[in-house]
Every structure is written in structure tokens, then in C-alpha cells.
Amino acid sequence: MKIFPTLSQKISSSNFFSAQFFGKTNFLIYIKELFQNINLFYYFFRRNIYEKLIKKLKIRIKNLLLFHEFFNNVYISIYNNRFFFQKEICIFIVISPKMADLKFKKGGFLNKMGGTVKSWKRRYFILRDMSLEYFKDQSLKEQLGTIPIVDCTISIEEQGDNQPGFYFMLKLPPTSNAKGPEFLICAETDEDRRSWINAINMVNVVTVFNNELYAALKVNPKQPGSYLPIPFFVVKAIKYLDENALRMEGIYRLNGSSQKIDNLVTMINANVNVEFSDANSTTGLLKLYMRTLKTPILRYENIPALKNIVSVPEPQQVPLLRSLLRSLPIPNYVFLAYFFAHLLRINQHADSNLMKVQAITVCIGPSLIWSQEGQPNDAYTESNIQQIICTLMLENYDKLFTSNPLMAYQATGGTKFYKLINLQDTKWPYTLDAPAGAIVQAIAHDKFGWTICVYNDKWGCVNVADLAEISSNREFLSGISAQHDKWRLSYDEMSMIGLNCPEASKLYEILLQRLRTLREKAARLTG
């Protein structure tokens, strides 16, 4: 490539990686040249020059995060508008064949309807990092559009209009610069549809902060495309605090560095697998995340019920609160169970960290409960609700959540069975330990697409995207007969659940008996 040879030589030389590159003048010159040579920038970016630069200089850059974000934004801006630049600057006419051969995640023909086109069109799709591009054909000579895969929601759809096949919908956020807010896409087979959905989920970048709780559950940096019942960074933050800061004075009370917290927020929003090194910044991040959720963990619609709980006599408060918690969406419920177990461990070291129950509730309450904007708001009443509810959860944890919080959730007790189509990432809490293809029983579900499932007497949360209908009686019988583990809870644990949540205990005794009966029948039929 003989275009801009000076820049090419600089990039190829070791001097390009020297710290002098980041001198103010030199840096601006390089950026100017990169902007002038759009395709060259794209060429080198896609051949991991950028990653090599990051690797060599990361110990010298004070703010690696902003550097990464800057170059990523430059790349996206240039690449998404490359044809405009090419036309106006008259550097290139089309992307060279070498550019078209660059690596991509997935490619193939699909039928599309959406954007500016309201009829079905057969297009060749290329999935890259953060974008789904479509072309007239597989020669890739004529690109017709790009769908940004950022905060993209994917759902399986029923049969569409006048087009046989297997459908899924891509819905884009209002901030997207795509040609339309949604695209209906049709694959030829169900297997192809699921393959595309899984591939898109793996490159989808999800904004975590200032979003709903359920958005963060789509992010798993180590296993992209795998759902988690609790946000990945919350688990990592609590693990760090449990191992390093339980005895630290003023934990959750003292504020961390705002710059460190902002950097962590930016990295998490980029779906980077962050590491924690400062306790106060870590607790500040957790409080900020909960406080900036679009809907609080205890949800706006429960504010009247929470006010009622605070106003009734103390003996009635715990049963009412337990009933409310069990009716929360599954992710909200397990988040509270996991987070308050951590707060209990902090309280157990109150002699060292000076964080007694009242101190903890003052710090945490405002991040869990607040009134919806536009609703009547009495600051004193709201603060009172925050402290009483948080105190009840800390002082009555075993009664509210029991030794197995999933068993205390409000279950239907149904016998709906599914096939688990994706392996769950069991390194994270409350995930189901079951192999892909296992037959599982969903005993509870919520309106946000989460279920509590049982496999081999093990419990876990599973997103409905990871479940499929069972295809045949033989598949069902074979899957059930393979489950032979005995009930894992001890008699004492079952008694505790029965004492604190009797309706759940009775329900699960019936469930267990049903499963055992089914297993015995399945074993006889398949034996």
C-alpha cells in the first residue's frame, strides 16, 4: 500500500509505539494524518495495530480508559461515514478487495424488512464488532446499510407477513443512527435464527449505568451472549470487598475518588471486565449503580405497599415484606438476597468497621428506594421508609430469604418442562448448574423473561432466551430419567424454610414428589 507512505512507515516502525507518540504536537499530527487516510486507519485498526499499541503502552498511559474510548469512537465515526469522506476528500472511490476480506464474526443471506424499506428484501449480512452490515450480494461491493449493535434488543417473533421462515426482531434505542428503530429479519431455519441471535448477542454492547437492571444481565465479558442473574461487576465488587474490606472503618460511608468511579463506569458501559483495587471507589460505584437505575430495585409500584409496611405493628411487618419481596421480578429478588447477605457480613464486623445496622441503612437506603419523579415526595417519610425497610431486611434476613432464596420465591408449582439450549456460566451466583440440552422444570417466571428452574434437584435462574420447547416425548423421557440426584437440602434446612415460608415449603414438597414420580416412570419407559 503506497498511500501516505510516511504514515505507513511510522506505524510499521517501533517509534510509533514510543511514549513520544503521546506528546501533544506529535499526537495531533498523527491524528490529523489518520483522519486524512480513512481506509488506512480502518486497515490498521482491523489488523490489531491498535491492540498492539494498547498492549505496549498501557503501563505508560495515565488514562487508558479514555484513550481506548477515544480511538473506538474515532474508528466508529470514520467507518460509519467512510463513503462520505471518500466522496468529499476524493482519496478513495471504493474499499479495496483487501478491505472486504477483513475478518468478521458471521456472514450469510437473510431476508430483511425495516428501516426505510417496508417490503421483504434478501440481503447478504456481515456481523462485525458492534455492527451488522448488509449488502446486495456476497461480493460485498455494494453496501446498503449498517445496523449498529449497541443497546440492541433481540426477540424471537412469530411468523411474519407473506414470508415463510423463522423470524427475529432487532429493536434499536432512540439514540441509534440507523435507518429505522427496528428491523424484522427472517432466517430459513430455526437453527440459523438461533445462530444469528447468539452471534449478535455476543457483540452487542449494552449500556449498564442509567439503564434498567435487566440490561446489565445481558453482559458477561468472559462469556459473551450468556445471561447472568446478577450484574457481573456487582458480583466482582462484592467479592473484592468481602476479601479486602470487611473490617475497614466506614465502609460504604466514606466516598471514593470520583475520577476512579467515573473511569469504572465508562469501562463497565463498554462491557469491559473491570478489576477493583480501592474499597471506597468500589462501594461508591455500587451505590451509584443502584441509585441511577431507571427503576429502583424495590420498584416504584411498591412504594404504597412499603409505606403500609412501615405503618403497621412490628409483628406484621416481616410477613408483609416477605410477601412483597417474593412478588418482585426474579432478578430484583436475587439481587437483594445477594447484596444484603454481603451487608450482613459487613455488620458482623461492626466492632472494627463501625458500621452498625443504622449506619448501613443510612448509606444504602437512598440507593434502593425513592419516589418516582412527578409523584408527591415527603423527604422525611421517604427517609423513614428507606431506613425501616433496610433494617427489616438486615435483621430478618433468614426469615425473608431463607438458606436457599430461590426456594422462598413465589413459585407457581407448575410442571412446565423445557430444554436448556445454552450452557450456563456457573461461576456466577444463582445460575443453574446443568449441561446444555438438559431437561429442566421452570417453577417460577416473571414478565421480564426470567425463570427459576430445577435440574437434578439443583436450583438456578435461567433467561427464557436459553430455553426451548421439548421436541419429542422421547427427548423428555430421556432427559428426566437422567436426573437421579437426591434432594440436596438437609432436614434442618427444609424445616427452616417451612417455618419462615410455609407456603413455599409445601409447594416444593409437592414439586419434589412430582419430579421423583416422573423420574421413576421415565426410567422404566427408557430402561
From TrEMBL:
Keywords: GTPase activation. GO terms for cellular component: cytoplasm. This is RhoGAP domain containing protein. GO terms for biological process: signal transduction. GO terms for molecular function: GTPase activator activity. Residues 103-205 form the PH domain. Pfam families: PH, RhoGAP. The keyword Ribonucleoprotein does not apply. Residues 215-401 form the Rho-GAP domain. SMART domains: PH, RhoGAP. It comes from Tritrichomonas foetus.
